[in-house]
Write the C-alpha cells for this entry.
Amino acid sequence: MPSRKQYERLSSGDINVYLNQLQNERSDASSFGSNLPPPPPGKRKPPPPPPPKKTGESDRDNNRKNINKDVSNAIESAVGYASNGRQTLMGANLQDICAVASSDAEEDYLDRSNRRGGRGASATTASQSKSEDGSISINDVFFRDHQDGHGSSMTHTSTSGSITEGLTVMEKLKIAAKLDTSSDNRFLKELLETSIQDLEKEKERRKSFKSNKPRSLPGHQHLRRHSVRPLSSSMYSDQGMASSSHRRHSFRPVTDGSAASTSSVNSATVAVPKEVRKVFSRIRGGKPLPREEIVSSIVRKFFARSKLEMGGEKISFCVALGPGNGKSSEGIGKTTLAGLICSRGDVRTHYHRGIVWIDMKLKVFGAKQHPLDFERYAAALSSILDQCGIPPHHLNLSPFVRTPCEDETLADIRMKGHMKEARSAAGKLLSSSKYFPMKRKTVVNESRRNILIVLDDLIHASDIQWFTFRYRGEKEIINDVLLTSPIEHAGSVTIPVPPLNEEDGVRLMLKEANLKSNHPISKSSALIRIVNGCSFHPLTIKFVGRWLSLKHITGNKGLDEILNEINSSFEGIDVSSSPVEVLFQILNKAIAPLVKGHESNTIRLCFAAFITVFCQDSCLNPIPFEIANEFFLGVVDSKSDSLSSICPLFMSHGRHATKLVAEVLGALGVIVITKHSTKEKTIQIDHELIRQFGSFVLKDKNMQQLVDDFAIRCWNELYARSHIDQYNWEDLQPDRSQKYALEKLPQHIIQAEMTDVAEELLLDKTFIRGRFWTLGWIEGTKTHAEDVEQFWNKFHMSSPEDCEMISLRIFEVMENVIMDEIHRETSGPSGNHSIMEAGQCLHIISMSLGKIGLWKYAARFSDECVELISGSLETSEFVDTLLYNSASMHLEINNFEKAKANAERGLSWRKKTSGEENVFYSRGLCLLGDIMFKKSDYRDAELYLKESIDILKRNPDQCHLDLGIALFKLGKTQYERDLVDDALRCYDQSLEFAESELPPNHEHFVVIYNLMGDALLKKGRNSDATYAYKQALTLSSEIEPKSHHLNIRISLIEGALHSLNGECGKAIEKYRHGMNLLRHHAPSNKGRIARILFLIGNQFMESSDVSAANAMFQESLKLMKQSIGPIHLDVAEVLVNLSSLEASAEKPEQAATYLEEAINIRQAKLGDCIKVAVNLTDLGAHRKAAGDNEKSKVAYSDSVRILRGIAGQELSLVNALLGLADLMNAIGEYGDALGNYNECLRIQKHLFCEMHEDVASTLYSIGTVKLNQCEFEKSIALLSKSVDIMTKLYDEIHPFNGDAYNLMGFIEMKNGNENGALVRLSDALRVRRALGNRVKEAETLKNIGNVHRERNNLRLAMEQYEECLAILTEEQGRDSESVVDVLIAMGSIMSDMNFDEDAISHYKNALQKLLRLHPAKHDTVASILQKMGMIQFRAGNLDSGLLYLEKTVETYRDLGGNNKWKTIPVLFVIGNIHNILKQGKEAKRAWKDAYEIFGSTTVDLYPEVKGSLKELLRTY
C-alpha cells in the first residue's frame, strides 16, 4: 500500500485506484492464509512471524486494540483537519466516533458496519476469513436485507452510488487520515460526513438493541415476531435447508447424514454467494419456497457422482436446470432453485473451496445471440477468483487486441487461443495451495472437484467449456458446473424444472399476496382454481398474488370477492397454451384496472412506452423515478384526445392518472422501485419476460388506437425534448437524472431521428466534458464513440457525405476536449487527465472511426495516440499493440509504406519488451506479411510469414492457432506466386489445426475450402475444385446466423461453380449479388468490389459480350487504382484482360498500350519472370499486328532472353521464338527467321519426338520461309513432310493438311507448275470438303480459279469464282470481306474478257459492299476505283475514266502514308487523258504532281514511268 506521503500527493481522481487496492486487500483478508502480493523485486522482506494463537477473549482483546489504534490515528488526523476551519464538523460527533470506536462491542460494530457499508447500504457479502484453528471468525456474519416494515419488495433501499459505497467506517477513516488536507478536498469531506452519519446510526441502534434485547431465543416465536425481515440468518446457516428431514425455523444443529453438524460445517463451509442473496431479496419476504424434493435430488446427483468418480474425469460434471420435453422454462424458477442449492449447508461444505455465481445475462439483449467473447470471459474469471477469495489481479491476463479491420474469422480463432490461456491460468490459481491451505485431514483419493460454478441464464452450449478448470491448468478437472438455461444443452445432465405442486403454488400465492400461510383462504377452492389457471407457473403465480394484494389494498372488497374477480379474468384465456402466454394475458388485464366496469389503457400505454424507450436494449439500467414520471405524463398528454374517449381512468383522473402508473406497476412487481435517498428513487425491470411483455402489450388490439408506426420515434422525442436544455452539463455534482441524460440522452435523440439536435449535442464541448467527469475518461469516450456509431448507422444511408463530415467533426471536438483536460492546471471532478488516459481515449476514437469505415481518419488518430503514449513510455507492450493497430489501419487504406513502418516499429518495441521468441512477435511478422501481400510483394510476404512460422513451430503447444493462421496466409501468398502445390499443402496443414480447435460449423472452414477450390481450379483439376467449392457451401449451410462476410463468400463460391459448368449468365448473377452485398455492408472496400467486377468481366468475356466485359474491366481498373494504387499486380491482371479484349476487336495498338502498362507493373513487382515473358510475347504479336515491327522485335527478343534464363519453360520459349521467327519472316529477315524456327524445332523434338503436331507446324513455317526465299522445291518438301506427320498422327482428312495442300498449290503456281498447282489444290479441296469447312472450301475454289485465270481458262476461272461466291454468301452473308474479294476477281475476269459493263457491275457491287463494311476510306476502295477508271479509259470513255481516276487519287491521298506512291501511275494516266482531251495545263499539272513524288525519296519505283514523265515535262 502507498505511504502517507504518497497519499498526500493523491488527487481525488486517483482515489478510485486506492479503492480498488483496498477491495483487493479485503478480498485477500477474506481468503484462507496469507494472500498478500509479493514485494517488488529487489525489495523483498522476510515474511513476518505468525502471530501466537489465541482463543476466546484474548483474540477479541487483541482485535479491539488494533481497531482502537487505527481509529485513533484516523481521528487525530480528522480532528486536525477540522480544527483548521476547512471543514464543519461538530466536536460532539468526533467524540461519538471515539466512543463508538473504543466500545467493547466490536463484534456488533464490525457486523453492522460491514453489512451496511455506509448510509443504509444494501447487504454486502460477509468476510470469509477464518482463524488459524478453523473456527468461524467474528467477520463471518450473514446477510440481512433492508426493506420496509411490511416486508414488501416493491421498494428496496441501496447505496447512493457514491464513490465511498460499500466501505466500512474503519476504511473510510483510514483513507481520510491519509488524504491531503491542504486544499478543499470533496472526497475527504464525503468520507468524514458519511462516517459520522454511520456511527450516529450505529449508536442509536445499540441503544435500541439494549432496550429491546430478548432474554431468550425461542426459535419459532422469535422468527414469527421478526418475520418482517426478508431473510433470516438461519436461511443461510449451515443447517438451513440441509435436507428434506430438517425442520425449518429451528436453530438446533443437524446431526443426520443429510448435512454436517455445526462444528464440522463451521470448519470448512463457504459463505452463500452474494448473488444468491440478491436473487432471494427479490422475493417477497426474502424466503423462497424450499422445494426440497427437487433440490435434494440435484444435490444427490452431484454427491453420488463425486463418490463414484474420485479423482475427477476428463470431462466436467455439468447439471443444467432447464426445460423438459421441449417446453419453455422461462419464469419457472430456475435461478431461485440454483440459489437454494447453493445455500444448502452440505453443498457449501462439499464445495469448500468456493461456490461461484456468474450471471451470464448480457446488458444488451441483441448481443445475447453471440457466444462468450474474451472481454466478458476475463470479467467472469475475475469474478470467479474474487468469489473464491483470490485477488483477481493475480490472474495477470495478457490483453486480447481486436482491430476493426481484422478478418473476423481469424480474430475469433486468436481470441479462443487467448481464452484457453486465461482458463489455464485461472485453473492454476484455483488449484493453488497458496490460497487454499488444508484445514482438515485429507481424505484418501478425495476428489479435487471442490468448487461449484453456477452459470445463470446461459444460452450458448459452447460457453460451458470455458468454465471447466483443471488442476494446475492441465490435469484433472477441479470444479463442477450448475447452469440455468431456457434451452437444453447436449453434454450436460439436464434436469427439467417442474411447475409447482398445488401446495407450493398456494403458499407462493399467499406469500406474494402478503397473507399468512394459514390464512383462511388457503383452503379456498377459488384460490386453488387460480393457481391451477396459472399452470402452477411460479412467475405467473407471483404476479397474480401481487394483483390480489393490490386489489385488496386499494378496494373495499373482501378476499372472496376479489378471488372471484380474478377467476373471472381467466375466462377467455386458453390455460392449455404456454405458461408465458398465460402470464402475458393475465398481466395485460392486471395493468388495465377496471374503472366503472371498463378496462383502462392509461397504465398499459405508459408501460409499453416505458419498455419501448428505456428497456428496448437492456433491462439492467435503472431509470430515475422523476424521469419516468415526467415521461408517463408526456405520453398521456400526447394521446389525451384518444384516451379521453376510450379510457375511463383518464376520464376520471385526467393527466393526474399518471401518478398511479409507477405505484401500480411497482405493487404488481412488474417494476422494481429502489429508494436511494429521501429524494432519489429509480425504476428497473429485472426479468426478460417483462421486456417481452412490453412488446405483447403493443400488439394488443385495445392499443391500436393509441400506438402507431411512429410511436418509437415520438416517445423518444418526448423524453429528449424535455431534457435537452434542462441541465448544466458541467455540474460537478449531477443528480441521477442528469447522470442518466449524460449517458443515454444522445441515444434517445437519435432514435427520435432528431438529426440536427443530435449533431448539436454530440458536438457540445460542455456535454462531452460532463460525460468525461461523470462516466470517467475511458468510459465517457467509449459511450460518446458508440453514440457517433449509432448516429452513423441511422443517418449514413440518407446523406453519406454530410454524415461523414459530422462524425469527423465530433471526434475532432472530442480530441480537443481531451487535450484541454491534459493541460488543465487544476484537476477536474475525476482527477487530472493523464497522458496515458488521453492516449487510450484517442485509441478508442480511432477504433470507432474504423468501425464506420473512415479508415483514413482512423489511421490519423491512431498515429496521434502512438506518438502521445510512446513519448511518455520507454518500453511498453501497450505501445506495440497501438503500433500494430495503426499499421492495420494504414493497411486498410492501402498506405503500405506507413503501415510497414509502423509494423516494423512495433516489432522493435516488442523485441525490447519480450524478445523475439513469442507469439506476439510472430503476429507482428504476420502483419508485415499481410502488408507485403496486399502490396503484391509476394516474395517479401513469404519471407515474413516463414519467419513467423519458424517462431511458432518452436512453441507448438502455446501457439498452434497462430501457426494455423500463419500457414493459411502463407498458402494465399504461394497461390499468388503460382506455387499452387505449395499453397495446397499449406491449406491442408491449416485445415488440420482448424479441425482440432474449432467447431465443425465454423466459418473459417468455408474460407479454407473456398481457397482450396481456387487453387485446384488454377491447377486445372476442375472436378477436385468443384468438390472443394461444394464442401464449402455444405459447411456454410450449417452456420447460423450468417455474417454478411459469409453471405458474400457464398455468392462468390456459387458463381465459381456456375462458371465451371459454363453457365456464364448464372455466374454473373451470383457475382452481382455478392457485389451488391459488399457495396451495402462495406462500401469503402473498393479493392474487393473491383475484384468482383473483374470476375464479372471474365464471365462476359467468356460469353463473347465484349462491350459488357470492357465496361466491367474499366470500372474494376478505376476502383483498383483508387484503392490499391496503380502499381499493383491486380491492376496488371485487369490490364492484361483489357488488352485481350482490344486484340479481339482488332485494335492492336490499344491492346499493346494496355499490355505495356501491365508488363511495367509486373516487372517492377516480380522482375524477369514467366508472366512478364508471356506478356512480352503477346506484346510482340500486338505490335506486329499494328505494323510496328521494331517494337515487336524488341518485345519478342526480351521474352526470349527472359525465358532462356528460366529452367523448365521450354514451351513458353518456343512460343516466343515462333513469334520472333514469324516477324523475321514477315519483314524479310529470312536468315534470322530460319535460325529461330530451327531452334524451335530442336526444342520440340527434344520435348516430344519427330512425330508430333508441333513439329509439323514448325516445318510448315519453315516452308513459308523457303517460299519467300523462292526456294520452291525445298518449301514443297518441308510442307510435304509436315503433311506426312499429320497424316500418320491423325489421318489425311485434317484441317492442317487442307491448309498445307492449299499452300503447296500456291507454291506450284508460283513456280510455274500450273498442273501441279491444280493437283495440290484439288487435294486441298477434297480434304476441306470432307471436313465440311465451307469457308475454307470457298478459299480453295478461289485459288483454283486464279490458276485457271493464269492459264487463260477464263470461263473455268469464272465458274470457280461463282461457286466460291455462292458458298461465301451462304456462310457469311452478302456483305463480307471475302465476298468483296471474289467480286473483284470476277470483275477482273470480265475485264480480261472485254465484258466492260459486266466488269463495271461487279466492281460497283464490290465497292458498295466495301463501303458498308468500312464507311471510312479504305485502300481497297481506291484500288476498285482505279480498275473502273482504267476500264473506262480503255473503252474510250475518257470523261468517266477521268472521274474514277481523280477519285482514286483523292482516296489514296486521304489514306496518307505509303499510299502516295500508288498515285504515281494513276496521275500519269490522268495526264495522258488530259493530253488526249487537249487540256495541256491540266495534263502538265498531273504529270508534275506525279514526278514530284519521285523527288521525295531515293527509292527507285516505277522507273519507266519516271522516265516518261521526265520526257513529257521537258517537252511541255
